[in-house]
Amino acid sequence: MANVSDITVSAAINSLSALLFLLAFAIFRLQPMNDRVYFPKWYLKGIREAPSTSGPLVKKFVNLDFRMYLRFLNWVPAALKMPEPELIDHAGLDSAVYIRIYLLGLKIFVPIAILAFGVLLPVNYTGKNFKIMSVSMKDLAFGEIDKFSISNVEPASKRLAAHIVMAYVFTFWTCYVLYKEYKHVTDMRLHFLASQVRRPDQFTVLVRNVPADPDESVSEHVEHFFRVNHPDQYLVHKVVYNANKLAKMVDQKKDLKNRLIYYSNKFERRPDKRPTTKAGFWGLWGKKLDAIHYYTEEIEKLSKEEIVERERVINDPKAVVPAAFVSFRSRWGAAICAQTQQTKNPTRWITMWAPEPRDVYWNNLSIPFLELNVRKLIMGVAFFGLIFCYLFPIAFVQTLANIESIEKVLPFLKPLINRGSVKSFIQGFLPGIVLKIFLLILPMILMEMAKIEGHIAVSILEAKSAGKYHIFLLVNVFLGSIVTGTALQQLKQFLDQSASEIPKTVGLAIPMKATFFITYIMVDGWAGVAAEIFRLVPLVIYHLKNVFLVKTEKDREEAMDPGSLAWPITEPRLQLYFLLGLVYSTVTPLLLPFIIIFFAFAYLVFRHQVINVYNQKYESAASFWPDVHRRILIGLIISQFTLLGLLSTKKAANSTPFLLVLPVLTVWFYKFCKNRFESAFRKFPLQDAMIKDTLERATEPQLDLKSYLKDAYMHPIFKGGEVELMDFDEDDDDFHIVATKRASRRGSQAGTTDCSPDPRNTGFNAV
Amino acid sequence: MANVSDITVSAAINSLSALLFLLAFAIFRLQPMNDRVYFPKWYLKGIREAPSTSGPLVKKFVNLDFRMYLRFLNWVPAALKMPEPELIDHAGLDSAVYIRIYLLGLKIFVPIAILAFGVLLPVNYTGKNFKIMSVSMKDLAFGEIDKFSISNVEPASKRLAAHIVMAYVFTFWTCYVLYKEYKHVTDMRLHFLASQVRRPDQFTVLVRNVPADPDESVSEHVEHFFRVNHPDQYLVHKVVYNANKLAKMVDQKKDLKNRLIYYSNKFERRPDKRPTTKAGFWGLWGKKLDAIHYYTEEIEKLSKEEIVERERVINDPKAVVPAAFVSFRSRWGAAICAQTQQTKNPTRWITMWAPEPRDVYWNNLSIPFLELNVRKLIMGVAFFGLIFCYLFPIAFVQTLANIESIEKVLPFLKPLINRGSVKSFIQGFLPGIVLKIFLLILPMILMEMAKIEGHIAVSILEAKSAGKYHIFLLVNVFLGSIVTGTALQQLKQFLDQSASEIPKTVGLAIPMKATFFITYIMVDGWAGVAAEIFRLVPLVIYHLKNVFLVKTEKDREEAMDPGSLAWPITEPRLQLYFLLGLVYSTVTPLLLPFIIIFFAFAYLVFRHQVINVYNQKYESAASFWPDVHRRILIGLIISQFTLLGLLSTKKAANSTPFLLVLPVLTVWFYKFCKNRFESAFRKFPLQDAMIKDTLERATEPQLDLKSYLKDAYMHPIFKGGEVELMDFDEDDDDFHIVATKRASRRGSQAGTTDCSPDPRNTGFNAV
């Protein structure tokens, strides 16, 4: 797979598969019955109505040849047409900034590619093809493509100066573009925050680790503390109930209701036969029962239990966790409370900006300080194990899943297994599939780890699991492809090597792996992005739901799965392309066009998806940007060290001091940007708070902020609830019953804090 | 120098020299003429008066045999007598906490030594003396002492389990003691801050990087900004003048005045001969002049220039730097402003707690943000060069200073140089002296580097230079003693070794270096501390000043040099003893008693010095403690890795996982303590601010805070000044002339921000 014609073939195959996905998309999106799969965003906005299905079906197929081709091109300008401010308005700042990452890739790599093709390609091509590799290695990975790579330059040649100069140029260009982008995103964020309408989280602070008081309840203690220490600013607060058990019950009930609907539909269609189910697990075994009757009874039983539990939560003082949402009279007051330390002991009365209500991860609000530290330690060790030992459990499962064990456990399968084709399938594919499944569920494992670590907002959970995923991909995909063997073997190899040898090992392997990574970009990047726009999994699930569950138009709306950007998964994968581009920009510039095509294509696709499909669960106002920035710089530093190692194998060791300057400058640039911009993503400046407060006081002097904030931070389980809720009212310091209204559809939907990243939404294939 | 008898001799010699210092101290401190050298603290407090010098001088010498010996023991109980609260009151919290570090050393090492002697010594001694070293190495460093060290345990022996268990016990004990101490110091600090009287810095925030405004002066801009964004809290502010040139003039004038006094005194003593001086550099050459006349004229000239410059500074708007001290109505308001971000751009309107007035480093208040970042980058690179290349310039100077070059440059010295004894002195001692001089001025170099980095308080400058000094000692003294060769050669050696080999190299060398470090502890530790109490350099300087400059009692007071703890120098050196104790606790426990004697002796000496001698320049309320804590933990981690390396050379590689747990736990412990305690040293909690404010409002309702704060943050150059000062008054927004009173003596003295650490104050010999 090493010479140019091989790559051409591979590119052709992958372009074709990408084209097939696009064609399938072009066909499927025109079918009215798929409209809710490909345009759910517009339905959620209430702008789009179901297209009439009365027209003659055949017409679409008749027009296929001509119109389809037009349509096939059609979505591209449509995706590009919407201007950025409108896009922010339509899909939120997170989405708008997210697709800018692809644009950033283009901004970085197009000029780099032009320079590299103009300067480095001629320098490499006219070099003497002085092979330093052994013949076997040459057979493996060296081919015509290497005529254009640094491998073609003979060791200790003066030509290598060109590569060093280019490394400088590329570093400065990348930093320049990153600086401009950071500045622009910061401005966008600040502008977005400034132009936002009034939101409860602007006035609210989350206080955790409220110390126990023998004489006062948590609620009283919180109120007295803030009345004393923020006398002019304190307005109202909301204690947090531990409603985890109740939430589980509600989920269970929803599941039962779905089953009831399924069987009712079945009965409606065939009224002659009452549907039956079995009492055991998942209706698979046990006594045969009348399904409709059984589920109706089960739901009633659960409803009663739910009411009991609901009352217990509200009335039992032990169900109140030592945390509260404290709201202030002004944004200024909240900004002050969030940024300052309240008491001597920094592990008590910890204040931070409240996440927006949809973003709160309720389960973790009550973890005490010491436990939080222990959890982090354990998860740190577990993550280390996950990176370096993840192949052990997989190997174990694979051993279990081999022919002999299967035969032993399930002897009746023996005749089947012993048939040649089945046997070879099991032996050939099963190990690979186990690994594939692991990589598919890896983001979910990382998300669970982040939850155990005890973060209190979905956005933080996602950021943390994204960080872990990035490290995993860096070690096990990038390094794992270069230094063969398991991560543990690599680690041992690196530890046994001297520090100055490590970059050499990596540097030596880098040019040889260029063709592998080009193929990777085409398979994972090109075809993956095309698969993303086709949305196969949501398509299938939607139609299954449509057949079995949907009765009314409202049901159909609920069956829609718009999905979301799932950036904790896509962003770390995306970083791999930045890394590859930066590493190969000086080594094998031929790789750059493939990266550029990926970024351009992905930009189009994701812009389309953001406009027509995805529905973000919360809005963090691009708070993930510092992570994106940092990770690109990590890629830049890795690229500098690999070049350093590569050149030292080229007997150009005296270039080392020149190249060592680059990582130092890059680290300094990182720190500079951090100081300059990061606080805009972490803190809320007082001046802006004051401006908004003053404006609001002038325009709405009669605003009743207290009632506006009262129920903003209520556990979602109480918001959608139908029973009455005992609530603590601050005005007259006594408990009375307040009927809570059913929250608006949007609030209820937003309240479901299902934060497992959903791998279905990303067309990328893991590894 | 390897066997027990050698060490006994060395111990005897060093104990004797320490004893000699103590004896000299005992004699000298009784002489009334030395009273101001050994008890300056009491003079400064105004408690002690000069002892009468009228008694018969001979009496002291008569009583010498008997009384002196009693006195010699006498200062020890006196040093221990003062209880800690009184000590804090007398010498400040910084000093009281500083001497607790020595106590901490005792708390850590006494139990460790008991356990190590009880468990490890028998285990080591009964091991088979299986030598793994080559014969030449054995001759070099192995001796009887190794019978008690881990070297005596044969490789792969089960006995090594004892060392691993002890490593765990020592780690947990050290962490436990450190935790208790951190907690105690935190409580002391908080109690100290809470019981402090009203101080200007409690109400004041330093704001830097005030953006330029075309319509307003800096002063107006500051006032408007804080009136808007802290409406209820803003009280008054003080702009900062760039008076660096003026300060230089004042220093120059002081110097000239000293010369004038010197010549006047000379003339008084011998009125027959008018003293003369020369006009050239330092009075060494040039035209001969009448000294008194010449200096009187010079002073007059300078005074006139000074007045002009003083007026320029006050009237020229360009002399106002974009920084200001902003004071608030309450501590609460200041705490809020110091801890929050003011504007979108985090590089503007940067607020932080104002250092106390004595602590401000005025020269650095005006550095803009970008320049600050560039300065830090340059200093980082320079520091790296200083660590790894400091021997190059020294070698260069040494080459210049060899016989041949001296002969070439100064041929007339040839006959002198060629005499045997002089030649051997130059060749034998000069290179060593050059190195010694470098190490003596190193702290000053590091302080200059910290100043260039742009920190704005003397306490921060000292903390930063201490951190650099610690790293320097770690690399060039500890590692440099173990891995011979220059730091650059070491670095190369480490880079060329594999990561898993480095601990082995160090681990192998550690037991061999035990005797070297025991000698080091005695020379640098024991004798050094004894020299500290003797105060030779201040003694000589005081008497020189007394002879040449002192005329009145006030002059004599100014001639006193109480010095200060100079913790940026002593603390990093001290850390070396913690490191050695921790490293050798499992390897060669015989080293521990030497460490314990050092800590006990140093505790006594420094307690005496703090009570009787030192006068701290500012009070940071023990804000250095997090650094002390961190550095001890760094020592602990180094000790764990060296043991790990040592055991892997002992063919006990399977112990590695057990020992790897320790650094992980230690790092976690560090993070835990950081979260738990550090903010008490960095932030001022709102609750405490509120309590103090409320109390003050109740007890002193009539307090005029504005006039109290008005001149607190004035450049010291204006405080001591005699000319009138134009001042900006906030009440009526116009300039009028306010006569500033001569500041009180204490304030003026405190205002001299001479912050170069003074190596004279520490008896430690560098390396």
TrEMBL record, chains A, B:
Domain CSC1/OSCA1-like 7TM region: 375-647
Domain CSC1/OSCA1-like cytosolic: 202-364
Residues in CSC1/OSCA1-like N-terminal transmembrane domain copies: 7-181
Listed Polar residues bias regions: 746-755
Alphabetical keyword list: Calcium, Ion channel, Ion transport, Membrane, Transmembrane, Transmembrane helix, Transport
Protein name as annotated: ERD (Early-responsive to dehydration stress) family protein
Positions of region (Disordered): 746-767
Organism per entry: Artemisia annua (Sweet wormwood)
Family (UniProt): Belongs to the CSC1 (TC 1.A.17) family.
Localisation: Membrane
InterPro entries listed in its UniProt record: Csc1-like, CSC1/OSCA1-like_7TM, CSC1/OSCA1-like_cyt, CSC1/OSCA1-like_N
Chief subcellular location: membrane
GO cellular component: plasma membrane
An annotated Gene Ontology molecular function: calcium-activated cation channel activity
Membrane topology: Multi-pass membrane protein
Membrane-spanning residues: 12-30, 101-123, 160-179, 377-401, 425-446, 467-488, 576-606, 632-649, 655-673
